[in-house]
Amino acid sequence: MKHKTFFWFFLPTGLAMLLFIAFPIVSVVIQSMYTPHDAVLITVENCGPFGCKQATTIDQEATASLRAAEPLGKFVGTEIFTDRGHLAFGEIGAAWRGSETMGVFFSSIYNLPFYRAMTFTLTFTFISVPLLIILGFIIALAVNSLNRHLKGVVIFFSLLPMIVAPLVGSLVLYWMVDSRGVLGTFIQYLANDPDLSMKASTPLTWVMIIVYGIWHSAPFAFVVFYAGLQTLPQDQMEAAQIDGASRWEQVRYVVIPHIMPLVTFVALIQLMDKFRVFEEIIGFNAEAHATSLSWMILNDLSGETQLLSSAAATSVMTLVGVAILLSPVLVRTWRDFQEKT
Amino acid sequence: MYFKRIAVAGALSLLASTSAYACEIGARVSIVGNEFPAIQTVGAAAQECKGGEVSTNLTADHQKINLAGMSGNPAEYTSAIVANSSIVALMNEDVIRPLDDLVAKHGAGLKKNQLITINGKVMAVAFMANAQHLVYRADVLEKAGVEAPKTYEDMLEAAKKIREMGIMENPVGGAYKAGWNLAQEFNNMYIGHGGEFFKPGSAEVSINNAQGVATLNMMKSLSEYMNPDFLTHDSNATNAEYRAGNVALMNMWGSRAATLSDAEGVSDEVKNGMAIAGPMTVAGGSTPATTLWWDGWTVAKNISDAEAEATFIALTNAIRPEILADEEVAKQAVWLIDGYEPTPAAVGVFDAASAGSTPYPMVPYQGLLHTALGAELSDFMLGKESAEQALADTEAAYTAAAKEKGFLN
Amino acid sequence: MSSVSAQRRPKGLRIAANAFVVFWLILAAFPFLWTLWGSFKVELDFFSIADWTNALTGANTERAYGTTTTTTAYHGAWIEQEFWRAVINTAVVCFCVVCLSLTMGTLGGYALSRSNYRYTFWLLIAALMFRAMPPITLVSGYLLPFFQWNLWGYLPTTIVVLVAINQPFTLWMLHSFFQKIPKELDESAKVDGCTQFQAFRHVIIPVMWPGVITTGLFSFLLAYNDFVVGALLLSEENRTMVPAIAAFLGTTQTEGNVMFAVAAVVSATAPLFVLVMFFQRQIVSGLTAGAVKG
Question: Any chain A CB within 8 A of the CB of C294?
Answer without folding.
Answer: yes
